Amino acid sequence: MERAGSVPLFIYYCCQNPDPFENVVFQDLLDQVHRWSEFYFRGSGAYSMFKATCAPLLRVLDFYYVGGMADAIDFPFVSCPSLIHLNWPWLESLPTENSVIPWMKLQRLRTWYIQPEIVSKYVVQAKSLLHFHCMGGHLQGPFPAPGSLTHPNLQSLVIPCSYLVWLVLPQLSHLLVTGHTDELPHFLLRSNCRLQSLAFNSYEVRTDCLSSILHSPSSTSLTELCLPVGTTVWFTTELLTDLTYTSHSSEVLCPNLKILHLSRARGASGQLGPMVFSRFTHPQSHLEQFEYYDFSLERPERSILIDGGFDEFDRHTIFAIPNVHVQCSNTWISITRDRIGTGSLRFMDKEPRSHTFSLDEFWREHHAI
Questions:
Q1: Are residues 166 and 266 in the same domain?
Q2: Region for residue 229 given its phi and psi (left: phi exceeds 0; alpha: psi -120 to 50; beta: otherwise)
Q3: What pLDDT band is residue 333 in, cutting at 50, 70 and 90?
Q4: 112: three-class secondary structure by DSSP
Q5: Which residues are CB-contacts of 2 (< 8 A; sequence separation ≥ 6)?
């Protein structure tokens, strides 16, 4: 480090010890804190934090715990005026003073479990914030007034759906909600945003809620819709009809979709396959990738016993789509468009791990600075 002179330091520090900042190696790094540009910490827990004065060049501070978290720990810096990317589990312990954290410059913020008043206190004052990720929350008062928190610039968001009741986000383009989805249609109507990607991390999405979401003007611009593994999706005949291209009409919901991930479709027997077929064959469709996960794929003849799941007709219809690459297992189907026109069909023992949806994957894809 000494030979590098004044070159900014990019540090990735991984330590599983209870006191990861007490060893000699880290003390050497701390002596060069004035040169830190990016600092990433990965560990299973820390019960005390290092102390530093000023980190004038620090742009990225990223604390990520792979195991249990300790109680809230104080922010280690007196000043970091260049900070634009902050991943910090304990948002409530952050100083609100702009002299410590340049809140007006912060572009990316990721945290864990917070109360609604913390969102109001920290996020709304960060006027330059583009990306915010909150894993979960504690619904304890005092609560902001419904629709009272407007952020003019936020573009991508991961948050419990119940928190949307207080928010108005006109520039939002990428959204992942956790928990129930009842508030989402009201949020879209209130924000009048234009979504490009929408994902759910919920146990189920009800028919009326899903229909309201997809019929919203905010969903017209969607290019990616993900209802991933573990989410039960309830369809109606009317909704699937509205999603299906026909030879007589090219008017469909979500006409710009390029990526569609579904799981455990219910009420869709005999209709899901034709909808997907139309999305890959109609000349005005943009769909490039479709994935579907469901244990009923293993025995599609029994789909009627599980509220109208994916059935044998749907399977045969999908396998008949021309000019696509199809990969499938007993629980998973993946279809990608083949521009060359050869097509392929591949049976697998199980789906690749890389195709398993996660919150971190969504964050990496849609929250990059």
A1: no
A2: beta
A3: very high
A4: strand
A5: none
pLDDT at 67: 57
Q: Is 25 exposed, middle or buried (0-12, 13-18, 19+ CB in 10 A)?
A: exposed
- 306: how many CB neighbours lie within 10 A of its CB? 16
Instruction: Kindly provide the b/e burial profile for residues 149-176, where b requires at least 16 CB atoms within 10 angstroms of the residue's own CB.
Output: bebeebbbbbbbbbbbbbbbbeebbbbb
More confident: 302 or 278: 278
DSSP 3: T
Looking at the fold, whether 97 and 184 belong to one and the same domain comes out as: no
Q: Is the pLDDT of residue 200 over 60?
A: yes
- Among 193, 215, 240, the domain boundary falls at 193
Q: What's the structural domain count of the chain? A: 3
The answer to whether residues 248 and 347 belong to one domain is yes
Beta bridge partners of 13: 41
Range of the domain at 188: 109-193
| Statement to judge: residues 8 and 100 lie in one domain | yes
CB distance 333 to 320 below 8 Å: no
As a whole number of angstroms, the distance between CA 218 and CA 195 comes to 6
Q: Is-contact 210 247, C-beta < 8 A?
A: no
Q: What is the mean pLDDT of the chain?
A: 85
Is 162 in the same domain as 18?
no
The pLDDT score that the predictor gives to residue 303 is 45
Backbone angles phi, psi at 51, to 5 degrees: -120, 130
pLDDT band at 49 (very low <50, low <70, confident <90, very high): confident
Do 253 and 355 lie in one domain? The reply is yes
Rounded to whole angstroms, the Cα distance separating 200 from 260 reads 12
pLDDT of the residue at 306: 47
Task: Give the three-class secondary structure for 64.
Answer: strand
Residues 318 and 292 in one domain: yes
Give me the phi and psi of 217, to 5 degrees please.
-55, -25
> How much of the chain, in percent, has pLDDT values that exceed 70?
85
Confirm if 221 and 194 have CB atoms less than 8 A apart: yes
Where does a domain end: 54, 75, 106? 106
One domain for residues 216 and 339: yes
